[in-house]
Amino acid sequence: MKDFFRRLLTRKDFQIFEELEEHLPTDREQLATILFEKRLITSYQLSEILKNYEDQLFVGNYVLQCLVGEGSMARVYMARSQDFDTIYAVKILKPARAASAMVLKRFQREVATLSTLWNDHIVRAIYGGVDGTRHYLVMEYLPGITLEELSRRRGSFSIAEVCSIGIAILKAIQGLRIAGLVHRDIKPSNILISPKGDWVKLVDLGLAHLEPSPETQALTFKNAPWIMGTPDYVSPEQIETPYAVDYRTDIYSLGCTLYYLLVGHAPFDGYNIIQKLSHHLYSEPLQLRSLRKDVPESLDLLICQMLAKQPDLRCSNIEQLLGQLQQFTQEAGETLFACEETLVDELQIGMDRDLESNYCQTILYPQDQNQLSLQPDPECMMSIEFELR
Question: Which residues are catalytic?
């Protein structure tokens, strides 16, 4: 049992364990309960030990601290490196899903995709591996909040904030394009922002796809049995030819996202899935200025152009788009979240943590609360985006 806790605890906490050892019970369940009460282990770890699943607390060289969320494909945990006691996010593919060749290939693609990217506005992958039957991806730890959850908390965003976020995600799209990739699922719940607004990052590259080449287009047009993306933010070409899209489909989805941030809903909100897809193909959304009077006419036109049905008619020059959004930010004369001190304080509560104590109080912001299948540990949560499909 001592060797087990040597692996489970940080070096500092194991020293505390050794100091207490002669006063601790030998019964495994009682011992684990006392260690939890002393905050040397988390409630998730206690639960796994009590269920005799303690071996599942280790994957590769990482110790699972707590479950932060679960989707149909994978679970995401906060984890600690045994080498340096550093905190990471670890995404583990569910065993039942790993049995599917298609799902396994998609997960492996996410690992491969992230490993090739190094962009300030894209979540960074640290390592991908297999431990027995468990396929996992180690990512940087991101204590932040999704734009979707932030919108729920405080309503619409200022013009400067929307444009600043747009600039960050355009730079992420630019990085993906350089790597020959298309994200295919840009939306508010796949964008994280720090409590102070000093970084914005695009996450969840599970749907990332290589841009089509002349050699592959003939194959992909006729082999597209389903739509890849999210109905509120999917581009017309994702509906018609999902395997033959390029970076312009990400620009369309970003346009939908900026629309959402400005008015609090997606361009075709309030319809069922089939109707939404039809509207993306054939209908124009309401003009932003008809929903929000302070939106500059030129910004309204710019987002409208990003939402053009034909990719060739969209704003396809990323540098030009960046310049236009930067101009709006400068004209507004604001900084991102400059006037949101109350919000910053609210989000910062519980996010400070002692990494050596194995105890954290950060906050989980799921993509879609209706799709969560369980509640994460209340005293050990973090904000990390993951697949909830």
Answer: 185
